[in-house]
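note to self: the first set is below, dont mix up w the second
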Amino acid sequence: MSNLPACPQCQSEYTYEDGALLICPECAHEWSPQAAAEATDAARVYRDAVGAILQDGDTVTLIKDLKLKGGGGTLKIGTKVKNIRLVDSDHDIDCKIDGFGAMSLKSEFVKKV
């Protein structure tokens, strides 16, 4: 089975290499593998628990209680987090929560306000 990416235009899985280009036999679209890799890195979309797109500076609320490691307490459901910053890691939101300080959250546990 081929490990080539699907066509970015028609999503066909039957792409093939021709020199330095990738070609789709169904729609005749040609692209370079480097351009496809850069486009997927630049186009990362962060979504909250209900599917809304998150951006830097958004305000979100927690949708479940979260226990903090190290005996720091619990963040309660409905806690509002202002001015989030999105980062590319396992915990994709960096924020500062009043009374708890700076921490990282997963976008699957928040809802955009």
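second set (the one i keep forgetting abt)
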Amino acid sequence: MIIPACPKCEAEYTYEDGLNYVCPMCAYEWPQNPEEEERVVIKDANGNELTDGDTVTVVKDLKVKGASSVIKQGTKVKNIRLVDPEDGHDIDCKIDGFGQIGLKSSVVKKI
């Protein structure tokens, strides 16, 4: 089996370490099988895995910056979209009365 050169610094001294290749010159690590790269799993307040399109409910009252009202506990949110976390907000959704908003997965539970 031929071990590839480092994709970052092109050094030829790479070696296998478990399921990854490692470059001793620049300390870069990459998976041997790129399709097996770790995917980020986003979980709700109860530990259930969330996916795009899920319907969730809010588990506690949430204050919304710039709004005089709050999102009440038990509010149903349909068709969520998972996004890269920005300030901890990893769910993008639309809530009636508030419009497009970002939520943290720790404050919702999957229905």
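remember for set 2: The radius of gyration is 21 Å.
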